[in-house]
Amino acid sequence: MNRFAVPMAVFAALVVVLALGIRHSPQKGIILSPLIGKPAPLFSLPSLNDPAHAVVSGDLKGRWYLLNVWGTWCVECRAEHQMLLEARDAHALPLIGLDWKDDDARARQWLTQFGNPYEAIALDHSGRTAVDFGVYGAPETFLINAQGIVVYKYVGPLTRDVWTQEILPRLPGHAGGSS
Amino acid sequence: MLPELGQFALILALLLAGMQAFFGIAGPMLGRDRWIAAVTPAVAGQSVMVALAVGCLVASFVSNDFSVSYVAGNSNSALPLFYRVAALWGAHEGSLLLWILLLAAWTVAVAIGSARLPPRFAARVLGVLGVVSFGFLLFTLATSNPFARLDPPLPDGRDLNPILQDPALAIHPPILYTGYVGFAVAFAFACAAMLEGRLDATWARWTRPWTTAAWAFLTCGIALGSFWAYYELGWGGFWFWDPVENASFMPWLVGTALVHSLAVTEKRGLFKSWTLLLAILTFSLSMLGTFLVRSGVLVSVHSFAADPARGIFILAFLVIMIGGALTLYAWRAPLLKSSAGFELGARESFLLFNNVLLITAATTVFAGTMAPLISDALRLGTVSVGPPYFNPTFLLSMLPLAALLSVGIHSSWKRGRLKDSQRMLLITLLAAAVLACALVYGIYQHGLVLTPVGALLGIWIILSSFVEPLSRWRRGLRVPRGMLGMTIAHSGLGVLVIALTTVQSFTLEHDVALAPGTTTTVGSYLFRFDGVQPIEGPNYDGIGATVTVTRGGAPVAVFKPQKRQYWVQHQLTSETAIRMDHGNNILVALGEDLGAGRWSLRLQIRPLVSFIWLAALIMAIGGAVAASDRRYRNSKVTEAAVPAAAEGSAA
Hints:
The structure holds two protein chains of two kinds.
Chain A: H1 6-24, E1 44-46, E2 54-56, E3 65-70, H2 75-90, E4 95-100, H3 104-114, E5 120-124, H4 128-132, E6 140-144, E7 150-155, H5 160-167
Chain B: H1 2-30, H2 33-37, H3 39-62, H4 69-74, H5 81-86, H6 92-113, H7 119-143, H8 167-196, H9 202-232, H10 243-268, H11 272-295, H12 308-332, H13 347-377, H14 387-409, H15 419-444, H16 450-474, H17 481-506, E1 508-514, E2 519-522, E3 525-536, E4 540-551, E5 554-559, E6 562-566, E7 572-575, E8 577-581, E9 584-595, E10 598-607, H18 610-627
Antiparallel strand pairs in B: 1-10, 2-3, 3-4, 4-5, 4-6, 6-7, 8-9, 9-10
Helix pairs in contact in B: 1-3, 1-7, 3-6, 6-7, 6-8, 7-8, 7-12, 8-9, 8-11, 9-10, 9-18, 10-11, 10-13, 11-12, 13-14, 14-16, 15-16, 16-17, 17-18
């Protein structure tokens, strides 16, 4: 084989990756997480607002919550922020923020400017917890039930449709799809 | 009636593109002169049909024909006329049509510009472009018909996405796509050269102006996108390493490498196989960008509605086009032999470093963009990358690039002795050091570790790039357009390095909560919040704030940032207010209502941030000047003129 065929070999490998990417893509943004139906990864991270206490996954057991992965460097997070505030005001379940590889001061500024939808914010400076959750890119949102099981995952900015049609109906006591 | 006419025109365009591809490639191969003669009429016919189709869709937008699904989805009767036209490329189907229109325009330009090239070679170039046109037309007709009708029609349209209702973003896609598509020309020239087996330096000379022009457009397009993100997203950043941004940045990086390696191939007959590969690679990355944005494989705010069927089509097309070109390359490139050598320290070696570093940068961006996909496909679990990955890795290849550029400009072709230019090298370095210290410690009086380094490199690039044209001018010699363009583009890069340095080092950001009548100070500016009032636009309403800014008691400007709620899509957008003052870019964004008349406001002072986009514009102008060099146009080339003689000479 001559060395000039190397680019073609690399390209062939890339095509395989892209083809697999397409095969997976119909589910992307809807579910596709190996974590669905499995316990959410455990974490114990410093809290943004309360330096004395940590945000610990074990403490969250016993109730449903929405884990929202965000960062001030993430444009899409800016787009979904309004929706998060609406979700907070619906009082359906608490929102826990996972502030991913971010600067604390910037995060505080962000929440001051745009409002704080979260009950607690865990600081994932190293990005370790995001990796455990298989985060693909912020924003991502995980619905976690009272037993700590991941029920649903959404990739991309949360929209009103996702909120009313995917998240609310999955909550206990929500037979229909209305909020 | 018009939409049906448009669709019919599109089908005719597909057939004509097929003819263009077939006659253009098969004609020269089988030596049929009459087939070759049919290529240009096919190009003309195809472009007229494409223009007609675009005209029909524009007419449907202008006349608010909401029976057309695409118009109904992306326009509204309250939308101003300008945006009704721009809405043409507001979503997937229409922007594909724009792609095709621009490709047709480039094809026509090439057909006219290559009238003096050997007819067989010109036919092959147009034939390869025909294959590209055919693929995109088929893609449009098969998966993304912009003329599909709605039955019953909607009473009114669903409106153009509000964040796209902005002058900068309205003109951003045409310019960006002109750049993307322009690299198809370089690709076509490379393929034609390989098909013909004419792998000397001539194809490089023929390709250079086209490639440089495409590069200039892409530069402008990327800068516009960044400018838009800066003021429309209301968050004050100018680059987010978003997959869609990366998709346009990768072809730019590789295209920049191509522009430089073409210079070496043309002037010295070196890097021949490498240049071919770069030409293929640049266009491949443009196509890959299209694929990534359209297929829904990557998630991004900018991206269009995802559809796996489209992804499969584009992938198949990629395999045919790029796979075909790379096969051709694997077959033809081994025939190439470089005759000339060069010494370390000669300009060739600096351009080699330039290429290596640019490709390294492109590879790191590519790896970061594709990492989630690759690890997902290989079932390694998902990984995530963001600015924490991109910023340092990118800097790692860009810092040496900037340093080597300043040295490399002083070098000469072939010979490695920098002795002759040593004096100028040291003078410019010293002058740059003095100016950088003056800037960092004189004006701003503080800085990070990299601040003086960045300032020094930026200034040094500018000073160095003027040395050669100035010395020619002093000796009474003509400065060729090519050299002038290079000087302008390089000094643009220098401005960019300086601006990035100051913005990263000296930005002031404050988020404050203010009640009407209260003030706050940021840097040397005093901001007074005068309250908010309701506003109403043609298709939105919202809230506008008034903020008066003064500096040392003297008024600077009154800022009126807004928050808009668009009626049809209920989307909130933030319109920041931005003004320049003494080189500082002052940005005021309106945040949240905190109750009792108090509002949160974001106040930013970014020194020289406008120079980032200005720098891109300077670089693009440099490209345009270089592309217009007369020596690419005047000489008539005939089939017989075997250009071995031109090789090695400075042309």
